[in-house]
């Protein structure tokens, strides 16, 4: 059965990690989809993916029409070819995997990203390469 989705944006907030006005120029055109199989369910059974999560996919995944999953590292190299920050929370990727991605070059308050302090330095470097990063006020 077909369904209509209006994405995950509720129009009421800009995530704290976004360091600039969030408008359509900062979102990757056309929206995107997550691959629900690549995310694990929490204790409540939902596959919740928070805003600011680094997601990616390979070019082969893109050609096959697959969605984005968590960015992974093997042998000190990022496994995915395309990586982006997730703009808004996805409340359950198994129910609605539609999402919005933050266009490269935008301003990011890195210390507000989820798990930044524990994030692998390779992933931190990948974010810094793709976005203009700064430290947000405490």
Describe this structure in words.
By secondary structure, this protein is α+β, with helices and mostly antiparallel strands. It has two helices and ten strands, in the order E-E-H-E-E-E-E-E-E-E-H-E. It has helices at residues 59-63, 121-130, and strands at residues 32-33, 54-57, 69-70, 73-74, 77-78, 82-86, 98-99, 101-102, 107-109, 132-134. Strands 3-2-6-8 form a four-stranded antiparallel beta sheet. Strands 1-7 form a two-stranded antiparallel sheet. It is globular and about 35 Å long. The model is unreliable at 1-11 (pLDDT under 50).
Keyword list:
2 helices; 138 residues; two-stranded antiparallel ribbon; disordered N terminus; single chain
Going by helix content, strand content and strand pairing, the class is alpha+beta
- What general form does the structure show? globular
- What does the average pLDDT come to? 86
Major sheet strand order: 3-2-6-8
Query: How many β-strands, per DSSP?
Result: 10
Number of helices: 2
SSE topology string: EEHEEEEEEEHE
Main beta-sheet annotation: 4 strands, antiparallel
Distance between the termini: 47 Å
| Whole-angstrom Rg | 15 Å
* Share in helix: 10-25%
Write the layout of secondary structure elements.
Elements: E1 32-33, E2 54-57, H1 59-63, E3 69-70, E4 73-74, E5 77-78, E6 82-86, E7 98-99, E8 101-102, E9 107-109, H2 121-130, E10 132-134
Parallel strand pairs: 9-10
Antiparallel strand pairs: 1-7, 2-3, 2-6, 4-5, 6-8
Short description:
The chain has 138 residues and is of the alpha+beta class.
């Amino acid at each position: 059965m077909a369904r209509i989705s209006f994405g995950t944006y509720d129009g009421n907030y800009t995530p704290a990690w976004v360091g600039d006005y969030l408008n359509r120029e900062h979102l990757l055109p056309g929206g995107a989809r997550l691959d629900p199989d690549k995310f694990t369910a929490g204790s409540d059974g939902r596959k919740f993916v928070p805003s600011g999560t680094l997601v990616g996919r390979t070019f082969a995944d893109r050609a096959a029409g697959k969605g984005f999953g968590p960015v992974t590292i093997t042998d000190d190299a990022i496994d995915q070819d395309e990586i982006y920050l997730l703009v808004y929370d996805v409340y359950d990727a198994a129910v609605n995997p539609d999402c919005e991605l933050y266009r490269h070059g935008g301003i990011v308050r890195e210390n507000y990203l989820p798990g930044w302090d524990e994030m692998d330095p390779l992933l931190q470097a990948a974010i810094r390469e793709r976005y203009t990063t700064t430290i947000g006020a405490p």
